[in-house]
Design goal:
With 271 residues, this protein is an alpha+beta fold. It has helices at residues 15-28, 62-74, 147-155, 172-186, 235-240, 246-249; strands at 2-7, 35-37, 77-86, 89-98, 102-108, 125-131, 134-140, 160-164, 189-193, 198-199, 202-203, 209-211, 217-220, 226-231, 257-260, 266-269. InterPro entries: C-N_Hydrolase, C-N_Hydrolase_sf, RamA-like, UPF0012_CS.
């Protein structure tokens, strides 16, 4: 699988600008790119006090419609984050958009950073689905600091864990380290795109990366805006599991329960 990490900056509340940057990057992607990953809440910017509902987007709104059309035109999948409005609630959401299904996966961030806990609603499940023969799962930013989130995806046989990220100074090294750990301990690929630049009185750390199932870096970026491109060789997963298989060997159970949907999506429902 050919994948691109689009490590971009964004503007809080400037949805037209953020969408245009995403569409431009999609148009510039290589012809053989199959998946492009953007940062956490890239479309809307972060939630802030007094700026939640005014930034939140509907899942069937024009912004997502434009991205679905871009996905079809370029024949690639898109992982991108935004604040999602659903009735009276707002979620920190990341979607996987595919040419075949439009919004193929919707994941609502389950582990909220302290600053957003009074602003958005946490999700209640981990999600993954199959696209072109590969099972892909989604996480958002702070989720990666909890081993159980990636382990739930791995328990559903996820091969590629995609993380939209908005990690800031001074915590940049934390997510680089945890991306390696989550890949290694679950023997799966991890693709993490972080935000760059400044916003909401923070400096974002960049350092987007792809890590293989052996815990080895495939590619990484520095702190500035940029695009990383790599080929995922899924035979590395077989190599990682040749002599031992952490999921089979574990003795401590994972809490929650599995729900399998008719379309092949799997949800791990949280207690």
């Amino acid at each position: 699988m050919q994948i691109e990490l689009a490590q971009l900056s964004g503007r809080e509340g400037d949805i037209a600008y953020n969408l245009d940057r995403a569409l431009t990057q999609i148009e510039r992607s290589h012809d053989d790119t199959q998946l492009i990953v953007f940062p956490e809440t890239h479309l809307t910017g972060f939630a802030e006090p007094s700026h939640v509902e005014d930034r939140a987007l509907a899942i069937d709104g024009p912004e997502l419609t434009a991205l679905k059309e871009a996905s079809r035109q370029r024949d690639l999948a898109i992982a991108i984050g935004f604040l999602e409005r659903d009735a009276q609630r707002v979620f920190n959401t990341t979607v996987l958009i595919t040419p075949e299904d439009g919004i193929a996966l919707r994941y609502r961030k389950t582990h909220l950073w302290p600053d957003e806990r009074e602003l958005v609603t946490p999700g209640d499940r981990m999600v993954c689905g199959v696209w072109r023969g590969r099972r892909i799962g989604l996480l958002v930013c702070y989720d990666i600091e909890f081993p159980e989130t990636a382990r739930a995806l791995a328990a559903m046989d996820t091969e590629l864990i995609v993380i939209t990220n908005g990690n800031m100074d001074p915590y940049g090294p934390v997510h680089r380290s945890t991306a390696i750990a989550r890949a290694l301990e679950n023997q799966a690929f991890v693709a993490m795109t972080n935000r760059a630049g400044n916003g909401v009185d923070m400096t974002f750390a960049g350092e987007s990366a792809i890590v293989d199932p052996l815990g080895q870096l495939v590619t990484e970026l520095g702190r500035d805006e940029g695009v990383a491109r790599a080929t995922l060789d899924f035979s590395r997963r077989d190599v990682a599991r040749r002599d031992y298989h952490y999921l089979d060997d574990r003795r401590i159970p994972l809490f929650g329960r599995l729900d399998e949907l008719p379309d092949g999506q799997r949800h791990w429902l949280l207690n």
